UniProtKB/TrEMBL annotation:
Keyword set, alphabetical order: Lipid-binding
The protein's role, per its UniProt record: May bind long-chain fatty acids, such as palmitate, and may play a role in lipid transport or fatty acid metabolism.
One protein family per Pfam: DegV
Keyword Thylakoid: no
Protein name: DegV family protein
PROSITE patterns in UniProt: DEGV
Source species: Clostridium mobile
Keyword Lyase in record: no
């Protein structure tokens, strides 16, 4: 059985310490504003705090998917070392990143047909994608093959729940992640929406709350209602520079679930995702009931 490397992109919003510990290779999305282009590289080139401060001060970032060449060069380096590749990819419903990766994959396979490159679209982003990366490493360390990990992910990705709330719907509207009609209604009524990533990996509105406190409580309720085998699960919480509220969400979830989960990871939302969520975005990710059942 050939060895393989686990690969991802920076939409996964993993903590940089974890990325370094695992030697995780990744493709970088970019974020541009004020005439500058920054790599989204888990906060190394542009700090998350600086990014959200800049957005609060009025900048309008634009994001771009990784280039075909970036994927080609990184895939080639891995394949040339004699390894296969398992790429855990951001949802195609949110980014065109998989398209760049697929073009690069085809180029590599023309040169080295013996290589194997598996691309798994996990139909979410941010720490939901990150949780799948962590699961892949766990399974690999248990001795599972790349095919076994791919089978697990394809069979279980609809159980990967993603729920979120945002302070300002304009960011989702501007980036085309939410319809103008839905955004305008929410803005006019001062509603804090409850959003999910649906079965197609796209943003959908599933509820509304009056006020931030209610919206955070709703996220906790959804976790409580939908998580399965909680003691075996990692819960991911990402935030757009609102750590206190992320910690409050963790506290409420812990009180409601009443069992100790395997781990709770809290991290910033990176620029690639944060451009569309804006400052104050708050999201929770976990394995539970199929997302078609809502």
């Amino acid at each position: 059985m050939r060895d393989f490397d686990i690969f991802t992109d920076t939409c996964s919003d993993l903590p940089i310490d974890y990325v370094k510990e695992k030697g995780l290779q990744f493709a970088r999305l970019t974020c541009s504003y004020n005439g500058q282009t920054y790599y989204d590289d888990f906060g190394q080139s542009l700090s998350h705090k600086q990014f959200f401060d800049d957005v609060r001060n009025g900048v309008v970032p634009l994001t771009s998917q990784p280039s075909v060449d970036e994927f080609y060069q990184k895939f080639k380096s891995i394949v040339d070392s004699g390894k296969d590749i398992l790429y855990i990819c951001v949802s195609t419903g949110l980014s065109g990143t998989e398209n760049s990766a697929t073009i690069a994959k085809d180029m590599i396979l023309e040169e080295k047909p013996e290589a194997k490159i598996a691309i798994v679209n996990v139909l979410t982003a941010s720490l939901g994608q990150g949780i799948m990366v962590m699961k892949a490493f766990e399974m690999k360390e248990e001795g599972k093959s790349m095919d076994e990990i791919v089978d697990y992910m394809e069979s279980n990705k609809q159980r990967l729940n993603t729920f979120m709330t945002v302070d300002d719907l304009n960011h989702l509207k501007r980036g085309g992640r939410l319809s103008s009609a839905a955004a305008i209604i929410g803005i006019i009524l001062h509603i804090k929406p409850t959003l999910m990533i649906d079965t197609e990996g796209k943003v959908a509105v599933i509820g509304k709350a009056r006020g931030r406190k209610s919206s955070i409580n709703k996220l906790a309720e959804l976790v409580t209602e939908r998580i399965e085998n909680a003691e075996e699960q990692i819960i991911g919480i990402c935030h757009g520079d609102c750590l206190e509220e992320a910690l409050k969400l963790k506290e409420i979830i812990s009180e409601k679930i009443k069992v100790k989960v395997k781990d709770v990871i809290i991290n910033f939302t990176g620029p690639a995702v944060g451009t569309h969520g804006g400052p104050g975005n708050l999201a929770v990710f976990f394995m539970g009931r199929d997302r078609s059942i809502i």
